[in-house]
Amino acid sequence: MGRTGVVTIRDVARECGYSASTVSIVLNGAPLSRYIPADTKGRIETAAKRMGYRPNPLARSLRSQRSNIIGVMVIDITDPFCTPIRTTNRTDLNGTWKCCWTGAWKDWW
């Protein structure tokens, strides 16, 4: 396990004896995985499952440069005009975005 106690791709690679690059290709289902033998894929997937590997969404967003997070600034969250906007954003963005942060401009002054 890594320093934080979270299982990383490097930990899985060390455990099953393959490079971190190969493990990454298999676990992410990259197009290059078609060139990796089925028994190798099986060993990597078994080791990852046994160790409790879970992809890190923050690391993925840094790599892909897409966070799927949207921020909405309103003047005052309690304002009758702003409340429907905030509610609509949360319901409309459900499923498309992972998180919707709402901040009030009034709170920053």
Task: Explain the overall architecture.
- By secondary structure, the chain is mainly alpha-helical.
- The chain has 2 domains: 9-64, lambda repressor-like DNA-binding domains (434 Repressor (Amino-terminal Domain)), CATH 1.10.260; 69-108, no CATH class.
- Helix content is 46%, strand content 11%.
- It is built from 5 helices and 2 strands.
- The protein has helices spanning 9-16, 20-28, 38-51, 57-64, 82-92; strands spanning 69-74, 99-104.
- A two-stranded parallel ribbon has the order 1-2.
- Helix 1 (9-16) crosses helix 3 (38-51).
- The mean pLDDT is 79.
Describe the protein's topology:
Blueprint: H1 9-16, H2 20-28, H3 38-51, H4 57-64, E1 69-74, H5 82-92, E2 99-104
Parallel strand pairs: 1-2
Order of helices and strands: HHHHEHE
Number of domains as seen in the coordinates: 2
Give the proportion of residues in helices. 40-55%
Oligomeric state as shown = single chain
Terminal Cα span:
44 Å
Mean pLDDT: 79
Structural class: mainly alpha
- Which architecture of the largest domain would the CATH scheme give at its second level? Orthogonal Bundle
What is the CATH level 1 assignment of the largest domain?
Mainly Alpha
